[in-house]
Amino acid sequence: MSQRTFAIVKPNAVRSALVGEILRRYETARLKIVGAKLVHASREKVAGFYAEHEGRPFFPGLVDFMSSGPILVLALEGDNAIADVRALNGATDPAKAAPGTIRHAFGPTMGSNVVHSSDSPESAAREISYWFSADELFSYAQKSSVADV
Ligand code: IDP
Ligand code: MG
Fold first, then answer.
1. Using CA atoms, how far apart are residues 77 and 125, in angstroms rounded to an integer?
2. Tally of CB atoms within 10 A around 84
């Protein structure tokens, strides 16, 4: 059964030209891009997205950082998309992220760890609809070759 998850390429990764590398990792892992757009979110939009963390010491810095420039918001589909993207991203603290993960490869710190992804079916549904309208999400069949039309 296919499942959808939500991911973000954070502003430091967009600024550092890591969009292609991060998307390559997701696509190589057979995750299908079903929604994608660049957004420069307001502080209010970011604060609402991270509402579960409001009141934590890192919250103001997180809101500053995530609204500091454009982010790439993504809806990704795959058989086990939620767990697969969490595994590809790695642990929240890049210093603890396993070799081979995006956060291990690019760090740089807990507060600016280059990617986000949903942690449960409930958060995936909420987060996809928080950033995408229905007409920005797509269903299509993946093909193994560009010659296969
Ligand atoms: P996650 O992104 O791995 O799901 P969460 O605990 O949901 O991690 O935290 C959301 C984001 O808030 C993290 O990706 C990280 O950037 C930031 N964050 C979480 N805990 C800390 C912390 O203790 N210090 C600094 N930033 C943190
Ligand atoms: Mg989280």
1. 12
2. 19
14, 72 Cβ separation under 8 angstroms? yes
pLDDT tens per residue, range 39-75: 999 999 999 999 999 999 999 999 999 999 999 999 9
Q: What is the pLDDT of residues 3-40, one digit of tens each?
A: 999 999 999 999 999 999 999 999 999 999 999 999 99
Ligand 1, CB cutoff 6 Å, lining residues = 53, 58, 62, 92, 110-111, 113, 116, 119
Distance 92 CA to ligand 1 centre (A): 6
The catalytically annotated residue of 26, 32, 89, 127 is 127
The one catalytic residue among 21, 45, 50, 80:
50
The number of residues in the chain equals 149
